[in-house]
Write a structure and sequence with these properties.
The complex is a heterodimer.
Chain A lengths: L3 H11 L2 H16 L3 H15 L1 H11 L9 H23 L1 H11 L2 H5 L5 H7 L7 H17 L5 H31 L6 H9 L11 H10 L7 H8 L6 H25 L6
Chain B lengths: L1 H8 L2 H17 L2 H25 L11 H18 L3 H11 L2 H5 L5 H30 L9 H24 L1 H4 L3 H15 L10 H8 L8 H8 L2 E3 L2 E3 L1 H27 L8
Antiparallel strand pairs in B: 1-2
Helix pairs in contact in B: 2-7, 3-4, 3-7, 4-7, 4-12, 5-8, 8-12, 8-13
The chains are: A mainly alpha, B mainly alpha.
Chain lengths: 273, 276
Protein backbone atom coordinates (compact mmCIF):
# COMPACT_ATOMS: atom_id res chain seq x y z
CA UNK A 1 0.00 0.00 0.00
CA UNK A 2 2.74 2.41 0.95
CA UNK A 3 4.78 1.31 -2.12
CA UNK A 4 2.05 2.64 -4.43
CA UNK A 5 2.46 6.21 -3.25
CA UNK A 6 5.90 6.90 -4.76
CA UNK A 7 4.72 5.22 -7.99
CA UNK A 8 1.70 7.50 -8.09
CA UNK A 9 3.95 10.50 -7.41
CA UNK A 10 6.29 9.46 -10.23
CA UNK A 11 3.33 9.12 -12.61
CA UNK A 12 2.07 12.54 -11.60
CA UNK A 13 5.48 14.05 -12.29
CA UNK A 14 5.83 12.23 -15.59
CA UNK A 15 2.56 13.59 -16.92
CA UNK A 16 3.08 17.10 -15.62
CA UNK A 17 3.94 19.80 -18.20
CA UNK A 18 7.64 19.71 -17.31
CA UNK A 19 7.71 15.91 -17.17
CA UNK A 20 6.17 15.68 -20.64
CA UNK A 21 8.59 18.27 -21.96
CA UNK A 22 11.60 16.37 -20.60
CA UNK A 23 10.32 13.16 -22.20
CA UNK A 24 10.03 15.05 -25.49
CA UNK A 25 13.61 16.28 -25.17
CA UNK A 26 14.85 12.76 -24.42
CA UNK A 27 13.02 11.30 -27.41
CA UNK A 28 14.26 14.04 -29.76
CA UNK A 29 17.85 13.55 -28.61
CA UNK A 30 17.63 9.77 -28.90
CA UNK A 31 16.29 9.87 -32.46
CA UNK A 32 18.85 12.49 -33.53
CA UNK A 33 21.66 10.35 -32.10
CA UNK A 34 21.01 7.76 -34.81
CA UNK A 35 23.19 9.99 -37.00
CA UNK A 36 25.37 11.44 -34.27
CA UNK A 37 28.22 12.53 -36.56
CA UNK A 38 25.80 14.58 -38.61
CA UNK A 39 24.17 15.87 -35.41
CA UNK A 40 27.44 17.13 -33.95
CA UNK A 41 28.42 18.71 -37.23
CA UNK A 42 25.00 20.37 -37.65
CA UNK A 43 25.15 21.73 -34.12
CA UNK A 44 28.64 23.06 -34.68
CA UNK A 45 27.58 24.73 -37.92
CA UNK A 46 24.55 26.25 -36.20
CA UNK A 47 26.95 27.75 -33.70
CA UNK A 48 29.29 29.09 -36.38
CA UNK A 49 26.35 30.53 -38.35
CA UNK A 50 25.49 32.64 -35.31
CA UNK A 51 28.88 34.32 -35.52
CA UNK A 52 28.20 35.69 -39.00
CA UNK A 53 26.33 38.79 -37.74
CA UNK A 54 29.01 39.76 -35.20
CA UNK A 55 31.78 39.00 -37.73
CA UNK A 56 30.14 41.37 -40.22
CA UNK A 57 30.03 44.00 -37.49
CA UNK A 58 33.71 43.46 -36.74
CA UNK A 59 34.58 43.74 -40.44
CA UNK A 60 32.57 46.94 -40.77
CA UNK A 61 34.32 48.48 -37.75
CA UNK A 62 37.64 47.05 -38.95
CA UNK A 63 37.22 49.10 -42.13
CA UNK A 64 36.94 52.24 -40.04
CA UNK A 65 33.16 52.54 -40.44
CA UNK A 66 30.69 52.52 -37.53
CA UNK A 67 27.08 52.82 -36.42
CA UNK A 68 26.67 56.36 -35.09
CA UNK A 69 26.51 56.41 -31.28
CA UNK A 70 27.55 52.80 -30.80
CA UNK A 71 31.07 51.47 -30.41
CA UNK A 72 31.93 48.00 -31.66
CA UNK A 73 31.67 46.24 -28.29
CA UNK A 74 28.27 47.74 -27.61
CA UNK A 75 26.99 46.49 -30.98
CA UNK A 76 28.49 43.07 -30.23
CA UNK A 77 26.71 43.08 -26.88
CA UNK A 78 23.43 43.87 -28.62
CA UNK A 79 23.99 41.11 -31.14
CA UNK A 80 25.02 38.68 -28.40
CA UNK A 81 21.73 39.35 -26.61
CA UNK A 82 19.83 38.89 -29.87
CA UNK A 83 21.57 35.56 -30.48
CA UNK A 84 21.00 34.43 -26.90
CA UNK A 85 17.30 35.16 -27.25
CA UNK A 86 17.23 33.18 -30.48
CA UNK A 87 19.40 30.48 -28.90
CA UNK A 88 16.83 29.94 -26.15
CA UNK A 89 13.77 30.14 -28.37
CA UNK A 90 14.83 27.96 -31.28
CA UNK A 91 15.71 24.73 -29.52
CA UNK A 92 13.09 24.97 -26.77
CA UNK A 93 9.90 26.16 -28.46
CA UNK A 94 10.41 27.62 -31.94
CA UNK A 95 10.37 24.03 -33.26
CA UNK A 96 6.57 24.13 -33.09
CA UNK A 97 6.72 25.89 -36.43
CA UNK A 98 8.38 23.15 -38.48
CA UNK A 99 6.64 20.53 -36.38
CA UNK A 100 3.23 21.97 -37.19
CA UNK A 101 3.99 22.53 -40.87
CA UNK A 102 5.38 19.00 -41.26
CA UNK A 103 2.58 17.32 -39.34
CA UNK A 104 -0.18 19.21 -41.15
CA UNK A 105 1.40 18.29 -44.47
CA UNK A 106 1.68 14.60 -43.54
CA UNK A 107 -1.65 14.47 -41.72
CA UNK A 108 -0.08 13.53 -38.38
CA UNK A 109 -1.17 16.80 -36.75
CA UNK A 110 -4.51 15.04 -36.21
CA UNK A 111 -2.74 12.55 -33.92
CA UNK A 112 -1.68 15.39 -31.63
CA UNK A 113 -5.21 16.74 -31.57
CA UNK A 114 -6.61 13.51 -30.10
CA UNK A 115 -4.11 13.43 -27.23
CA UNK A 116 -5.60 14.34 -23.85
CA UNK A 117 -3.40 17.44 -23.50
CA UNK A 118 -3.36 20.94 -24.97
CA UNK A 119 -2.44 20.97 -28.65
CA UNK A 120 0.01 23.80 -28.02
CA UNK A 121 1.78 21.81 -25.30
CA UNK A 122 1.91 18.68 -27.48
CA UNK A 123 3.27 20.69 -30.43
CA UNK A 124 6.04 22.09 -28.25
CA UNK A 125 6.83 18.79 -26.53
CA UNK A 126 7.29 16.97 -29.84
CA UNK A 127 9.36 19.74 -31.38
CA UNK A 128 12.55 20.00 -29.34
CA UNK A 129 15.27 20.89 -31.85
CA UNK A 130 18.55 19.59 -30.48
CA UNK A 131 20.67 20.96 -33.33
CA UNK A 132 19.62 24.48 -32.42
CA UNK A 133 21.46 24.14 -29.11
CA UNK A 134 24.40 25.25 -31.27
CA UNK A 135 22.63 28.62 -31.58
CA UNK A 136 22.44 28.85 -27.81
CA UNK A 137 26.14 28.11 -27.40
CA UNK A 138 26.96 30.64 -30.14
CA UNK A 139 24.82 33.28 -28.44
CA UNK A 140 26.44 32.67 -25.05
CA UNK A 141 29.93 32.91 -26.57
CA UNK A 142 29.24 36.19 -28.39
CA UNK A 143 27.61 37.71 -25.30
CA UNK A 144 30.49 36.61 -23.10
CA UNK A 145 33.04 38.05 -25.51
CA UNK A 146 31.22 41.40 -25.61
CA UNK A 147 30.77 41.55 -21.82
CA UNK A 148 34.46 40.90 -21.27
CA UNK A 149 35.37 43.93 -23.37
CA UNK A 150 32.90 46.29 -21.69
CA UNK A 151 33.17 47.85 -18.22
CA UNK A 152 31.32 46.03 -15.44
CA UNK A 153 27.69 47.05 -15.07
CA UNK A 154 25.89 47.73 -11.76
CA UNK A 155 23.27 45.28 -10.42
CA UNK A 156 20.38 47.63 -11.23
CA UNK A 157 21.32 47.49 -14.93
CA UNK A 158 21.43 43.70 -14.79
CA UNK A 159 17.98 43.53 -13.16
CA UNK A 160 16.40 45.74 -15.83
CA UNK A 161 18.24 43.74 -18.47
CA UNK A 162 16.80 40.43 -17.20
CA UNK A 163 13.27 41.85 -17.13
CA UNK A 164 13.56 43.10 -20.70
CA UNK A 165 15.21 39.87 -21.80
CA UNK A 166 12.23 37.94 -20.45
CA UNK A 167 10.01 40.05 -22.68
CA UNK A 168 12.33 39.31 -25.57
CA UNK A 169 11.58 35.59 -25.07
CA UNK A 170 7.86 36.36 -24.78
CA UNK A 171 8.05 38.18 -28.09
CA UNK A 172 9.80 35.22 -29.66
CA UNK A 173 7.03 32.96 -28.41
CA UNK A 174 4.50 35.31 -29.99
CA UNK A 175 6.36 35.00 -33.29
CA UNK A 176 6.35 31.20 -32.95
CA UNK A 177 2.57 31.18 -32.42
CA UNK A 178 1.92 33.31 -35.49
CA UNK A 179 4.23 31.16 -37.60
CA UNK A 180 2.74 27.88 -36.36
CA UNK A 181 -0.78 29.21 -37.02
CA UNK A 182 0.22 30.23 -40.52
CA UNK A 183 1.79 26.80 -40.99
CA UNK A 184 -1.64 25.21 -40.54
CA UNK A 185 -3.23 27.40 -43.19
CA UNK A 186 -0.30 27.61 -45.59
CA UNK A 187 0.27 23.90 -46.03
CA UNK A 188 3.82 22.69 -46.51
CA UNK A 189 5.35 26.16 -46.72
CA UNK A 190 8.57 26.12 -44.70
CA UNK A 191 9.41 29.58 -45.99
CA UNK A 192 7.08 31.00 -43.34
CA UNK A 193 10.24 30.96 -41.20
CA UNK A 194 11.93 33.30 -43.64
CA UNK A 195 9.15 35.87 -43.41
CA UNK A 196 9.58 36.20 -39.68
CA UNK A 197 13.36 35.83 -39.73
CA UNK A 198 13.56 38.75 -42.12
CA UNK A 199 11.42 40.88 -39.77
CA UNK A 200 13.53 39.75 -36.80
CA UNK A 201 16.65 40.92 -38.63
CA UNK A 202 15.69 44.47 -37.71
CA UNK A 203 16.27 43.47 -34.09
CA UNK A 204 19.92 42.62 -34.65
CA UNK A 205 21.00 46.24 -35.05
CA UNK A 206 20.68 49.36 -32.87
CA UNK A 207 17.21 50.88 -33.11
CA UNK A 208 18.74 54.30 -33.72
CA UNK A 209 20.01 53.41 -37.23
CA UNK A 210 16.45 53.13 -38.57
CA UNK A 211 14.28 56.03 -39.71
CA UNK A 212 11.78 57.50 -37.22
CA UNK A 213 8.78 55.80 -38.86
CA UNK A 214 10.54 52.43 -38.80
CA UNK A 215 11.55 52.96 -35.18
CA UNK A 216 7.87 53.49 -34.32
CA UNK A 217 6.86 50.28 -36.14
CA UNK A 218 9.65 48.35 -34.42
CA UNK A 219 8.61 49.66 -31.00
CA UNK A 220 4.81 49.85 -30.97
CA UNK A 221 3.52 47.49 -33.68
CA UNK A 222 5.96 44.59 -33.96
CA UNK A 223 8.25 45.39 -31.00
CA UNK A 224 11.35 43.82 -32.53
CA UNK A 225 13.47 46.40 -30.66
CA UNK A 226 12.74 44.37 -27.54
CA UNK A 227 14.67 41.41 -28.93
CA UNK A 228 18.02 43.04 -28.27
CA UNK A 229 18.15 46.81 -28.69
CA UNK A 230 16.23 47.59 -25.48
CA UNK A 231 17.82 44.86 -23.31
CA UNK A 232 21.27 46.01 -24.48
CA UNK A 233 20.41 49.65 -23.75
CA UNK A 234 19.17 48.62 -20.30
CA UNK A 235 22.41 46.81 -19.56
CA UNK A 236 24.39 49.83 -20.74
CA UNK A 237 22.17 52.11 -18.66
CA UNK A 238 20.71 54.13 -21.52
CA UNK A 239 17.19 52.80 -22.00
CA UNK A 240 14.58 55.36 -23.14
CA UNK A 241 11.03 55.81 -21.81
CA UNK A 242 9.42 54.26 -24.92
CA UNK A 243 10.36 50.89 -23.48
CA UNK A 244 7.12 50.76 -21.44
CA UNK A 245 5.07 50.98 -24.62
CA UNK A 246 7.26 48.32 -26.22
CA UNK A 247 6.63 46.01 -23.23
CA UNK A 248 2.88 46.54 -23.57
CA UNK A 249 3.12 45.94 -27.30
CA UNK A 250 4.92 42.63 -26.69
CA UNK A 251 2.15 41.44 -24.34
CA UNK A 252 -0.49 42.42 -26.90
CA UNK A 253 1.59 40.63 -29.55
CA UNK A 254 1.66 37.44 -27.45
CA UNK A 255 -2.09 37.57 -26.75
CA UNK A 256 -2.83 38.13 -30.42
CA UNK A 257 -0.53 35.22 -31.24
CA UNK A 258 -2.40 32.93 -28.83
CA UNK A 259 -5.80 34.01 -30.21
CA UNK A 260 -4.57 33.56 -33.77
CA UNK A 261 -3.10 30.11 -33.11
CA UNK A 262 -6.14 28.69 -31.30
CA UNK A 263 -8.56 30.20 -33.81
CA UNK A 264 -6.67 28.53 -36.66
CA UNK A 265 -6.54 25.22 -34.76
CA UNK A 266 -10.30 25.39 -34.17
CA UNK A 267 -10.88 25.87 -37.90
CA UNK A 268 -8.45 23.11 -38.86
CA UNK A 269 -10.17 20.37 -40.83
CA UNK A 270 -7.21 18.05 -41.59
CA UNK A 271 -5.23 18.28 -44.79
CA UNK A 272 -3.38 15.07 -45.47
CA UNK A 273 -2.81 11.58 -44.14
CA UNK B 1 13.01 0.73 -86.71
CA UNK B 2 12.04 0.29 -83.06
CA UNK B 3 15.58 1.16 -82.04
CA UNK B 4 15.37 4.34 -84.11
CA UNK B 5 12.13 5.33 -82.40
CA UNK B 6 13.60 4.57 -78.99
CA UNK B 7 16.66 6.59 -79.82
CA UNK B 8 14.55 9.55 -80.94
CA UNK B 9 12.44 9.26 -77.78
CA UNK B 10 15.51 9.40 -75.55
CA UNK B 11 17.42 12.04 -77.49
CA UNK B 12 19.15 14.63 -75.34
CA UNK B 13 17.01 17.66 -76.31
CA UNK B 14 13.80 15.68 -75.77
CA UNK B 15 14.86 14.45 -72.34
CA UNK B 16 15.98 17.88 -71.25
CA UNK B 17 12.79 19.50 -72.53
CA UNK B 18 10.68 16.87 -70.77
CA UNK B 19 12.52 17.23 -67.45
CA UNK B 20 12.52 21.03 -67.58
CA UNK B 21 8.80 21.14 -68.38
CA UNK B 22 7.89 18.57 -65.74
CA UNK B 23 9.91 20.38 -63.05
CA UNK B 24 8.41 23.71 -64.05
CA UNK B 25 4.89 22.29 -63.74
CA UNK B 26 5.68 20.51 -60.48
CA UNK B 27 7.06 23.70 -58.92
CA UNK B 28 4.24 25.76 -60.35
CA UNK B 29 1.95 23.97 -57.87
CA UNK B 30 4.07 25.49 -55.08
CA UNK B 31 4.53 28.93 -56.67
CA UNK B 32 3.25 30.60 -53.49
CA UNK B 33 6.32 29.31 -51.67
CA UNK B 34 8.56 31.04 -54.19
CA UNK B 35 6.44 34.17 -54.00
CA UNK B 36 7.42 34.54 -50.32
CA UNK B 37 10.62 36.12 -51.65
CA UNK B 38 8.59 39.08 -52.92
CA UNK B 39 7.93 39.93 -49.27
CA UNK B 40 11.15 38.70 -47.68
CA UNK B 41 13.79 40.13 -50.02
CA UNK B 42 12.62 43.77 -49.82
CA UNK B 43 12.75 43.47 -46.01
CA UNK B 44 16.30 42.11 -46.05
CA UNK B 45 17.22 44.84 -48.49
CA UNK B 46 15.70 47.52 -46.26
CA UNK B 47 17.76 46.23 -43.33
CA UNK B 48 20.90 46.53 -45.49
CA UNK B 49 19.77 49.95 -46.66
CA UNK B 50 19.49 51.26 -43.09
CA UNK B 51 22.76 49.63 -41.97
CA UNK B 52 24.76 51.17 -44.80
CA UNK B 53 22.93 54.47 -44.65
CA UNK B 54 23.99 54.76 -40.99
CA UNK B 55 27.56 53.77 -41.83
CA UNK B 56 27.87 56.18 -44.77
CA UNK B 57 26.70 59.05 -42.57
CA UNK B 58 30.22 59.26 -41.19
CA UNK B 59 32.18 58.66 -44.43
CA UNK B 60 31.81 58.77 -48.22
CA UNK B 61 33.47 55.47 -49.13
CA UNK B 62 33.97 52.05 -47.56
CA UNK B 63 36.64 49.92 -49.25
CA UNK B 64 36.15 51.80 -52.51
CA UNK B 65 32.36 51.49 -52.49
CA UNK B 66 30.08 54.52 -52.43
CA UNK B 67 26.63 54.20 -50.82
CA UNK B 68 24.92 53.70 -54.21
CA UNK B 69 27.49 51.11 -55.30
CA UNK B 70 27.03 49.22 -52.04
CA UNK B 71 23.26 49.07 -52.57
CA UNK B 72 23.81 47.96 -56.18
CA UNK B 73 26.18 45.25 -54.93
CA UNK B 74 23.60 43.84 -52.50
CA UNK B 75 20.77 44.10 -55.04
CA UNK B 76 22.66 42.23 -57.77
CA UNK B 77 24.07 39.75 -55.26
CA UNK B 78 20.57 38.85 -54.06
CA UNK B 79 19.36 38.38 -57.65
CA UNK B 80 22.34 36.11 -58.38
CA UNK B 81 21.48 34.14 -55.27
CA UNK B 82 17.89 33.68 -56.43
CA UNK B 83 19.06 32.58 -59.83
CA UNK B 84 21.60 30.11 -58.47
CA UNK B 85 19.54 28.52 -55.72
CA UNK B 86 18.99 24.81 -56.09
CA UNK B 87 18.34 21.73 -54.00
CA UNK B 88 20.12 19.17 -56.15
CA UNK B 89 22.52 18.19 -53.35
CA UNK B 90 19.71 17.63 -50.84
CA UNK B 91 17.68 15.66 -53.37
CA UNK B 92 20.61 13.43 -54.23
CA UNK B 93 21.31 12.87 -50.54
CA UNK B 94 17.69 11.84 -49.90
CA UNK B 95 17.73 9.48 -52.88
CA UNK B 96 20.88 7.81 -51.58
CA UNK B 97 19.65 7.67 -47.98
CA UNK B 98 16.33 6.08 -48.92
CA UNK B 99 17.83 3.84 -51.59
CA UNK B 100 15.56 5.35 -54.25
CA UNK B 101 18.66 6.35 -56.15
CA UNK B 102 18.63 2.81 -57.55
CA UNK B 103 15.78 3.80 -59.88
CA UNK B 104 18.08 6.37 -61.47
CA UNK B 105 20.68 3.72 -62.08
CA UNK B 106 18.11 1.93 -64.21
CA UNK B 107 17.13 4.99 -66.25
CA UNK B 108 18.77 5.77 -69.60
CA UNK B 109 19.83 9.25 -68.46
CA UNK B 110 22.68 10.35 -66.23
CA UNK B 111 21.59 11.72 -62.87
CA UNK B 112 23.71 14.87 -63.00
CA UNK B 113 22.18 15.80 -66.36
CA UNK B 114 18.67 15.07 -65.06
CA UNK B 115 19.35 17.13 -61.95
CA UNK B 116 20.74 20.06 -63.93
CA UNK B 117 17.63 20.10 -66.15
CA UNK B 118 15.51 20.10 -62.99
CA UNK B 119 17.38 23.17 -61.80
CA UNK B 120 16.77 24.94 -65.12
CA UNK B 121 13.03 24.20 -64.95
CA UNK B 122 12.83 25.38 -61.37
CA UNK B 123 14.80 28.56 -61.97
CA UNK B 124 12.75 29.51 -65.05
CA UNK B 125 9.74 29.61 -62.76
CA UNK B 126 11.76 31.42 -60.10
CA UNK B 127 12.69 34.04 -62.68
CA UNK B 128 9.02 34.80 -63.27
CA UNK B 129 7.78 34.49 -59.69
CA UNK B 130 10.73 35.73 -57.62
CA UNK B 131 13.36 37.50 -59.66
CA UNK B 132 11.22 39.77 -61.85
CA UNK B 133 9.10 41.17 -58.99
CA UNK B 134 12.19 41.72 -56.81
CA UNK B 135 13.91 43.44 -59.76
CA UNK B 136 10.87 45.71 -60.06
CA UNK B 137 11.22 46.56 -56.36
CA UNK B 138 14.88 47.45 -56.82
CA UNK B 139 14.12 49.62 -59.84
CA UNK B 140 11.36 51.41 -57.92
CA UNK B 141 13.87 51.87 -55.10
CA UNK B 142 16.14 53.70 -57.54
CA UNK B 143 18.75 50.98 -58.07
CA UNK B 144 20.13 51.13 -61.60
CA UNK B 145 20.18 47.48 -62.64
CA UNK B 146 22.08 48.07 -65.88
CA UNK B 147 25.21 45.94 -66.41
CA UNK B 148 28.37 47.79 -67.40
CA UNK B 149 29.19 45.12 -70.01
CA UNK B 150 25.97 43.21 -70.78
CA UNK B 151 27.45 40.31 -72.81
CA UNK B 152 30.16 39.53 -70.25
CA UNK B 153 27.63 39.89 -67.43
CA UNK B 154 25.35 37.29 -69.06
CA UNK B 155 28.28 34.88 -69.62
CA UNK B 156 29.43 35.33 -66.03
CA UNK B 157 25.91 34.78 -64.67
CA UNK B 158 25.55 31.58 -66.71
CA UNK B 159 28.90 30.28 -65.48
CA UNK B 160 27.97 31.04 -61.88
CA UNK B 161 24.67 29.20 -62.46
CA UNK B 162 26.59 26.08 -63.54
CA UNK B 163 29.24 26.43 -60.83
CA UNK B 164 26.73 26.76 -58.00
CA UNK B 165 24.98 23.65 -59.29
CA UNK B 166 28.25 21.71 -59.38
CA UNK B 167 29.11 22.77 -55.81
CA UNK B 168 25.69 21.75 -54.45
CA UNK B 169 25.66 18.51 -56.40
CA UNK B 170 29.15 17.65 -55.19
CA UNK B 171 27.96 18.05 -51.59
CA UNK B 172 25.14 15.62 -52.37
CA UNK B 173 27.70 13.06 -53.57
CA UNK B 174 29.13 12.95 -50.04
CA UNK B 175 25.98 11.02 -49.09
CA UNK B 176 27.64 7.95 -50.62
CA UNK B 177 29.99 8.10 -47.62
CA UNK B 178 28.00 9.82 -44.84
CA UNK B 179 24.40 8.82 -45.80
CA UNK B 180 23.03 11.97 -44.14
CA UNK B 181 24.75 15.15 -45.28
CA UNK B 182 22.75 17.89 -43.55
CA UNK B 183 25.81 18.88 -41.51
CA UNK B 184 28.22 18.91 -44.47
CA UNK B 185 25.60 20.68 -46.54
CA UNK B 186 25.12 23.40 -43.92
CA UNK B 187 28.89 23.76 -43.52
CA UNK B 188 29.44 24.24 -47.25
CA UNK B 189 26.42 26.53 -47.53
CA UNK B 190 27.83 28.70 -44.76
CA UNK B 191 31.29 28.63 -46.33
CA UNK B 192 29.76 29.53 -49.69
CA UNK B 193 27.82 32.44 -48.22
CA UNK B 194 30.87 33.83 -46.42
CA UNK B 195 33.38 33.19 -49.17
CA UNK B 196 31.19 34.03 -52.17
CA UNK B 197 30.47 37.59 -51.11
CA UNK B 198 26.78 37.03 -50.37
CA UNK B 199 27.13 38.49 -46.85
CA UNK B 200 29.59 41.27 -47.64
CA UNK B 201 31.72 42.34 -50.61
CA UNK B 202 34.87 40.22 -50.35
CA UNK B 203 37.19 43.23 -50.55
CA UNK B 204 35.94 44.34 -47.13
CA UNK B 205 37.58 41.30 -45.50
CA UNK B 206 41.13 41.52 -44.10
CA UNK B 207 43.82 41.49 -46.81
CA UNK B 208 45.27 38.07 -45.85
CA UNK B 209 41.84 36.44 -45.94
CA UNK B 210 41.13 38.03 -49.33
CA UNK B 211 44.23 36.31 -50.73
CA UNK B 212 42.98 32.99 -49.39
CA UNK B 213 39.52 33.61 -50.91
CA UNK B 214 41.02 34.38 -54.29
CA UNK B 215 42.06 30.74 -54.74
CA UNK B 216 38.71 29.21 -53.68
CA UNK B 217 35.88 28.54 -56.16
CA UNK B 218 33.26 30.37 -54.07
CA UNK B 219 34.02 33.92 -55.25
CA UNK B 220 32.98 32.82 -58.76
CA UNK B 221 29.46 32.02 -57.53
CA UNK B 222 28.48 35.51 -56.43
CA UNK B 223 31.30 38.04 -56.05
CA UNK B 224 32.66 37.68 -59.59
CA UNK B 225 29.30 37.91 -61.44
CA UNK B 226 28.36 40.94 -59.33
CA UNK B 227 31.70 42.64 -60.02
CA UNK B 228 31.38 41.80 -63.73
CA UNK B 229 27.90 43.35 -63.62
CA UNK B 230 29.32 46.48 -62.00
CA UNK B 231 32.17 46.45 -64.54
CA UNK B 232 35.25 46.34 -62.33
CA UNK B 233 37.00 43.42 -60.61
CA UNK B 234 39.40 43.69 -57.70
CA UNK B 235 40.24 41.29 -54.86
CA UNK B 236 43.26 41.00 -52.56
CA UNK B 237 44.92 43.85 -54.42
CA UNK B 238 44.64 41.91 -57.71
CA UNK B 239 42.87 43.81 -60.46
CA UNK B 240 41.74 41.99 -63.60
CA UNK B 241 39.95 42.98 -66.76
CA UNK B 242 36.44 41.61 -67.18
CA UNK B 243 37.36 39.08 -69.95
CA UNK B 244 40.25 37.80 -67.81
CA UNK B 245 38.14 37.15 -64.73
CA UNK B 246 35.33 35.56 -66.78
CA UNK B 247 37.93 33.27 -68.39
CA UNK B 248 39.17 32.32 -64.93
CA UNK B 249 35.57 31.66 -63.90
CA UNK B 250 35.17 29.28 -66.89
CA UNK B 251 38.37 27.47 -65.86
CA UNK B 252 36.98 27.07 -62.33
CA UNK B 253 33.77 25.56 -63.73
CA UNK B 254 35.91 23.03 -65.61
CA UNK B 255 37.95 22.20 -62.50
CA UNK B 256 34.80 21.82 -60.39
CA UNK B 257 33.26 19.53 -63.00
CA UNK B 258 36.34 17.28 -62.91
CA UNK B 259 36.29 17.19 -59.09
CA UNK B 260 32.59 16.34 -59.21
CA UNK B 261 33.10 13.48 -61.68
CA UNK B 262 36.06 12.09 -59.74
CA UNK B 263 34.04 12.03 -56.50
CA UNK B 264 31.09 10.51 -58.32
CA UNK B 265 33.31 7.77 -59.71
CA UNK B 266 34.58 6.93 -56.21
CA UNK B 267 31.20 7.31 -54.52
CA UNK B 268 29.04 5.30 -56.88
CA UNK B 269 31.16 2.21 -56.13
CA UNK B 270 29.97 2.40 -52.52
CA UNK B 271 26.26 2.51 -53.37
CA UNK B 272 24.51 -0.73 -52.45
CA UNK B 273 20.87 0.40 -52.72
CA UNK B 274 20.17 -0.28 -49.05
CA UNK B 275 16.68 0.85 -48.08
CA UNK B 276 15.22 0.51 -51.58
Amino acid sequence: MTGLKPKKEAGKWRFSVLGLYIQGVKTALASRMAYRGDFIMSMFIMMIVEFSGPVITMIIYGNGASFPGWDMNEVLLLQGIFLLSRGISFPFFMGIVWNTIGRVQEGTFDLLLIKPRSILLMSIVTAFDSEDLGKLIGGILVLRMALKRLPEQPLSHWISFFILFLFSIILMFGFALFMAGLGIVWIGNYRIYEIFMSVMDFGMYPKSIFSKSFQSILTYIIPVSLLASYPASALLGSVDKDVILALLASIVFLLLGLCFYFKIVRNYTSAGG
Amino acid sequence: MQRAVMKKGNSTPRVSKAVITATYKENFAYRNQMAVSIFVQPIYFLVHYFIWQAIFQTRDQVSGFTFDQMLLYFAVSSLVEFMNWDSSGNKLQRLIQTGQFITFQLRPVSHIYFSFCEKIGQRILAFLVEILPVMCFYILFGIRLIPAKPVWAVISLLLSFVLSFLIRYTIGIFAFWFVKTDGVSRAVLLLTNICSGAFLPLNLYPQGFQKFLFYLPFQFVSYVPVRVFIGHYELAGITMTIPQIVFLQAVMVGVMFLVNRALWYLGIKRFAGVGA
